[in-house]
């Protein structure tokens, strides 16, 4: 099939992904540096305390590779980029954002798939899995409370109290997303599913963008890119998968990571962000109470007195701290929260330090964390 601006080949698509990746990393650029207040959480303690210049160098190498890919997409450049990104993500798990995970896999598929049709097929599998499990992650009461009722109806549309049927109608959204993800894999339903998901992204941009709530800027480029990817990968291309392709290692890895492991997230054995769980609601948030003078001096601008459910004031919401300093949400796993507590106690010691996990929802809970 002849490549064009509306129907690019894998190299052309790589340019668009690189552009979105650059814009995303620039928005949350502090996430990729060590010179910040928000703690680094490496995958192992042996990687802690490495010089800040290493983080900066990896960021510059990655950005340079992405800029080069805009001009001449090449396999060697992608390999260098992947090496830099993977090492950078090992130095801080908060960098394991959903879009980062997706881009790394798409670029890796470009390297390990030899034929053009295999590259496109691998990307189609990733995108379809992303939407299916994105819907699975939202199919819970927390999504209804936090995202549908509070974020969409109350904050965005300025709708006050609603009856039970409007509340329950929110379950339709994850069901549509799940169904659309599956329908992308069937030629007869591919185009309706594509248009449904494009409309979803346009509504998300309208809600989160400058004409709406003007929040979470880091996902704006990703939402725009996904519209383009949906059109480019599914409008004029069919989805045909053969046994001879599935048994290849690259496709086995994609199927395992994008279609099998996300099921384990439901039981807590796989990470949310590695399972396309985003805006699902109910994510536990860490709050910090402290009487340490240095902490109040450093982080006073991030502290708030409006969280009445937390038994101290002012209190530091780690989520809000992340959104304001590194411009993205902290990685929502317990091991990360515990690592941040340990980092906090090392930097700001004191008997007045207290830590609480707040789980939002219709019946919210507040639990104090006692670290040994």
Structure description:
With 372 residues, this protein is mainly alpha-helical. It has three domains: 1-95, no CATH class; 113-281, no CATH class; 285-369, no CATH class. Helix content is 56%, strand content 6%. The chain has helices at residues 10-27, 52-71, 75-91, 98-112, 116-138, 141-156, 164-169, 172-183, 190-208, 220-234, 243-246, 249-264, 293-299, 318-325, 334-347, and strands at residues 285-289, 303-304, 315-317, 354-359, 365-369. It has a five-stranded antiparallel sheet with strand order 2-3-1-4-5. Helix 2 runs antiparallel to helix 3, helix 4 packs antiparallel against helix 5 and helix 5 packs parallel to helix 12. The longest helix has 23 residues, at 116-138. The chain is globular. The model has no long low-confidence stretch (mean pLDDT 94).
How is this fold's topology laid out?
Blueprint: H1 10-27, H2 52-71, H3 75-91, H4 98-112, H5 116-138, H6 141-156, H7 164-169, H8 172-183, H9 190-208, H10 220-234, H11 243-246, H12 249-264, E1 285-289, H13 293-299, E2 303-304, E3 315-317, H14 318-325, H15 334-347, E4 354-359, E5 365-369
Antiparallel strand pairs: 1-3, 1-4, 2-3, 4-5
Helix pairs in contact: 1-2, 1-4, 1-10, 2-3, 3-4, 4-5, 5-8, 5-12, 8-9, 9-10
Which descriptors would you attach to this protein?
mainly alpha; 3 domains; 5-stranded antiparallel beta sheet; 15 helices
**Strand adjacency order, main sheet:** 2-3-1-4-5
Domain count, please report it: 3
Mean pLDDT across every amino acid position: 94
User: How many DSSP helices?
Assistant: 15
